[in-house]
Fold this sequence. Notes:
The complex is a heterodimer. By secondary structure, chain A is mostly helical. Chain A has a domain at 108-337: MetI-like fold. Chain A has helices spanning 3-31, 83-89, 91-99, 103-107, 110-142, 145-160, 163-174, 179-188, 198-225, 230-238, 243-271, 275-279, 289-297, 307-337; strands at residues 34-38, 40-49, 56-65, 75-79. Chain A has a two-stranded antiparallel ribbon with strand order 1-4. A two-stranded antiparallel ribbon of chain A has the order 2-3. Chain A is extended. The two termini of chain A are 22 Å apart. By secondary structure, chain B is mostly helical. Chain B has two domains: 61-150, no CATH class; 157-385, MetI-like fold (Orthogonal Bundle). Chain B has 17 helices and two strands. Chain B has a two-stranded antiparallel ribbon with strand order 1-2. The longest helix of chain B is centred in the N-terminal third of the chain and has 38 residues, at 102-139.
Amino acid sequence: MKFKTFAMFVGPSVFLMLLFIAFPLVAVLVNSFQVTQPVFTTQEVETCSAGFLQQTCTTEVKTIPVLDENGEIITTTKWVGFSSYANVLGGERFTRALSNFDFGAILAIDFWKALRFTLTFTLITLPCVLGLGLAIAIVVNNATRAIKGPVIFLSLLPFIITPVIGALSIRWLFYGDGIVTVWLEAWFNTDLSIAANGWAVEFLMMFYRVWHVAPFAFVIFYAGLQTVNQDTLESAIIDGASRWERLRYVVIPHLMPLIVFITLIHLMDAYRAFEEVIGFSSESLRITLQYLTYDYLQPDDAGNRQISSASASAMLTMVGVIVLLAAPLRRTWRDHRG
Amino acid sequence: MSDASLPRAMRQPFSLKFASNAFLLFWLLLAAFPLVWVLVMSFKSPVDAFSSSAADVLIGPRTVADGNGYSVIDIALGILVFWLSIKAATKWLSPMAAGDGFLQKVFSWAIISVGFAALFILGFFVVAPWVAAPLNALLGPLGTPVIGLTAQHYEAVWVENAFYENFRNSMIVTFGVVTVSLTVGTLAGYGLARSGSTFAFWILIIALIFRALPPSVLVAGYLPVFINSAEILRPFLGENAPTLYGQPLAVIAVLVSINQPFTIWMLRSFFQNIPVDLDESARVDGCTHFQAFRWVIMPVMWPGVITTGLFSFLLAYNDFLVTSLLLDASNQTMVPAIAGYFNRETTTTDQVEAIAAAVSITAPLFLLVMIFQRQIVSGLTAGAVKG
Lengths: 338, 387
């Protein structure tokens, strides 16, 4: 294919990716070093109220934003270097906590709290997703043919459902006097309040993620199980391998590329976890890195969005993505080189 | 597969079979229970829906007391109507809408579902109550209400809270995203699958990096530009420069671009399964690259396009982050709109309405899995097979 034809085919897609992915990335990088603020001016204001014999007057110095001729607030953009980063990372509080070796204080800072949770979340859900997915695939493969269709249908539901709603449907089972909480309370004879307990909420968020992603792992492992070499399995039986040994030494090595694939996809997706925070309303207890950026972007009570801090936290999130992808990308590059 | 046909060593002891099936049952319960429970809750009065007794949630004594009870006869009639309308839809409507091509199939499915819905609504809300009322009065104990079901929350959500507006916005955004990303994506996927150049390799690698980017990183870049776009674009477009913030079209462009890396990877792997000989023979016959693509490759590519379209649909339909940040309240889509319900959850009525809204959002997805199960499975495995 000539380069010109290739460019015609790929052009629109590359244009969109440049305009809406590459360009915003550069904009975020630039924004993270700048702060845009309204210009303020100080003004003396004398307010008088009626009093007996004479008025009581007070003079105050007020800070008010400067308006231009259209009545809009004038803003200036200042180059602030790394101060937005320092702000997101916790600045003074962080260095003080670090010098005291006070990890509790570090984890009270939003960014470190989000980082801690995101990493724990990603690393704990990964083996659960792989294990549960493989178990379901083996069990379905073992089931009678007639029920496989309906079983796959039911299993796909948690995967296909809107993430926020999936999280909500689990939240409604547990929060308040949810039915499962009532059962647990009756079983252990205690009083539980799930929504107020950070660790319980953290567990529910992980449970939701495993419930949501396990079907994806299941479908891929199930497809992989169909291509296991039957001859190898039979030779293993003749050699006297037990069921467990056959699984361990024949089936799992065969599925290894799929395990790597699911691991990569899951690491990418769990690292940008976000919907859990919305679904479980865990803003005050547990937040993720992506939620941190989202939170800075949300307008506050005065309608201002902290674009600069959002950009800084977005760039810090990017660092994690690069670390995550470094190993697989190097492998792909080696494969391509030949 | 019967046991006798298997070699002895492959046969499984009863205990293993039992454990295997028990685990399967456990997983199915785990997968379906939250969804089924939410569905049940959405039809009950708030007191029943949040009752601490499971039996109360299922039967709904309070809902019955509110006059929304149904007797055994009502239920039997309801099931009869359901069964008859399925029968009628498959027997009369399917032959009418039979066809070979993909478009005909979509069309026939649409006709069948519309016909089914019409029959069902007519039977359920007009004929069944008309027959049931005198029967209930006649039969005494069989006619007393045993189970409570009410559609009042759905009515509140869709009619009073104007959820149909959010539904319409969702449809605009998803339709736009699916059509644009498939058009742009098939072209790029084909180009990338047929070119072995290093440039193509680099595009794919960069797309993979883009695939891993959290959308919030990108939205942080869009927001300031979108909010001030009228001023930024004024020198080029004059006085009618648009403010992109809050525009569904801008959101469509953003979602298409964010999903583009995923789309081109998936379509490329589908195009690679189509033998190159096919284009080459078309080229020998005098087609240009584009003609070969349009008249030779696309007709055999439909399954891949449908599968990718399904995933684009899901990505756009399920999106919360981009739509909630880039659209304002007046043209919000369904998923962010639901957040409004549980932010103001002061009363249990609000919560049950949130549940009804959640079920409303899930219902189309449920239908989608039912119709396209095979395509979804093939799409999930498409990327994985190559490793």
